[in-house]
Amino acid sequence: MHHLLSTTAICLSLTVAPAAFAETEQQDSGAIVVTAQPFVEGEISKFDTPLIRTPQAISVVTADQIRDRGITDLNDALRSVAGVSRSSTYGYYDAYTIRGYDTAYDSLYLDGLITSSVAGTNYELAGLERVEVLKGPASSLYGSAPIGGIVNLVTKRPQEDTFLVAGVATGSYDLVEGRVDANMPLDKHGRFLFRLNALYSDQDDFVAHAGKNRLFVAPALTVVIGENTHLTVLGRWQRDHDNPWSPLPAEGTVLPNANGPIPYAFPINYIGDQKVVNNQDYKSIGYIFDHDFTDSIRFTQTLRYTHAETFWNNWVFADAFVDSGYIDGVQQGHIFGIDLYGPFYQTDKAFGVDSRVSAKLDTGPFSHQILVGYDYRQLRSAAHEDGGNYDVTVNTLDYLDPDYTRPLIHDPIFAYSSDSKSHQSGVYVQDQIGLGDKLFITAGGRWDWLVTNGKKDNDFSPRIGANYLITPQVALYASWSRSFSPQFGWMESFDGTALPNGRGKNIEAGLKVNVGGFSATASVFQLTRTNVPTADPLHAGYYVVTGEQRSRGFEMEAAWSPARGANLSLAYTYIDAKITRDNDIPSGTRLGNVPHHNLYVRGEYELQAGALKGLGASLALLWNSDKVGDTSSFYDADGDGTNDAAFRLPGYVIVDAGIFYRLADWRVAVNIDNLFDKHYYPEASYYTRVAIGEPRSWRLSLSRRF
Q1: Fold designation for 2-705
Q2: How does pLDDT run across 353-368, given as a tens digit for each residue?
Q3: Which of 55, 400, 556, 687 is the most exposed place for a label (fewest CB within 10 A)?
């Protein structure tokens, strides 16, 4: 059963800082915790290789960390990852930047296969064993991908023992939640292993008339076909019925308004006595199959089919103020226009398969870890909107005297339909060559062939890197890699040809350390993105790919366990991300939603003896320095009648706290987010869409392992 466990309970050498070079063991929740150990395997790298030999920065957030911090969404889970910043302005979608670059919807993977949904996602974390983040270009293994990196969600797999973990939670905004994690062998020989994760959650939100309701079920079955052959079938169903809140204009939140500030958490999501509706139904079925031909040769295949349906209606967003303009750079208006979306329907059907062979062998004085693979993915997406209304003079709202009874006016003239189909296939090869036990060189590349709505394209993505082990616990590394990603389909060239793929190049160097109870990864990097679409200066409404962007920075993740029960972790990032060439935006403009400085620090201590053994507490701090809100939206800051300034979001500090108590198989915890009730605006999309930071909230959870 060794192969089953090594395949399904992965190596956490992928650094979470605390889990930087760690071995795994089972705890009361059936989740993964970490203990010091220098060599562990990894899944996001597609073959088993120690982190200390990987020439790239990789981070992990484990199931235990998700539980201990009271995290319920991916954006918050990624707070502790250096180089990652939240960029979600639309209420409930997973959205983030990695190393300064927006990841859009093509960076999220589930068990190594892209999630392939263009409608936006918000994946439930209850069924996850961990979240992995690979920073920098991933195209040499995964094909088209954002230059900043990718996020891989790893589902919980069946285990050999029998257990049941049941939990309930309550908290702010009338939270009601129940969850279960059940695992058992189905036969006495342990050839059939079954696991079920399920959750029901219902909660209002800090903005009036907003809330979310979720039902999640994820069954998994492992079949031990033979000592060296295993098949794990994974199912997933997630149904979300949400009433999202909407972001607010910059003028009145982070910019001055002559009429005073817009009230914090001001609701614009209930106009015409109708809530915003956003419903999603996500179903998937797939498997992971692996067979060991020998101790050194393994075949692995991952396959998944996904069917996702999305519906939204009455989704409203603020637009420009319509009752006045600027005087001396200050907005005078208090009535803003409304962009109305819906009814909108979308269906996504996706299929993906990845087949690979990994082998370990020696050739003279050199050791090799060779990876050869082929993958294929296809997405069919059909969407239809019956008619919203983007005429901002028709639907309006006065923030000084809001009238929520005024009905929203839809207009069929804005109706549209779309039907797109894309598929991509790729072949990848990689070899990690060891020269003795100190120097390891990793080289590889991938050839991709893409077809999007009948338009064909191809690309090649190389990668090379080296790791030098000063000692078995300390290594230097450096790497160079390239990436590519297709352009958005609505961007067109004047001559009708498809815009060339966006390209990225990464140069990176760093240090990885694991000594005693201390582990750390530090790196410096420069990512250059070329073929960035920018306005065609000769043909209005069309695009050319002459733009360029650059992100330079330093990041560090570290963890220290100074005593039993005490854990400290830190993640710090400095990023200088800017536009270096564009036809519209001045060179040197910072990229939106990317702070220069981002710091996350967390400490936890649990009593190890005495009458209060099992009692613990935690404290965490998140600091974001100020940042540009959006580089595509400018405003008239100096009153000269020209919109020529990018607005900024102020920096902020958020403190979270928690207290917990473990007694035998019971665990009770209270988590408080934003302890000091800080009002802040964490991200933006356009100058009319500034996200609202969540005020202080609390969560009380109780669980028992049977």
Answers
A1: Maltoporin; Chain A (2.40.170)
A2: 999 999 999 998 999 9
A3: 400
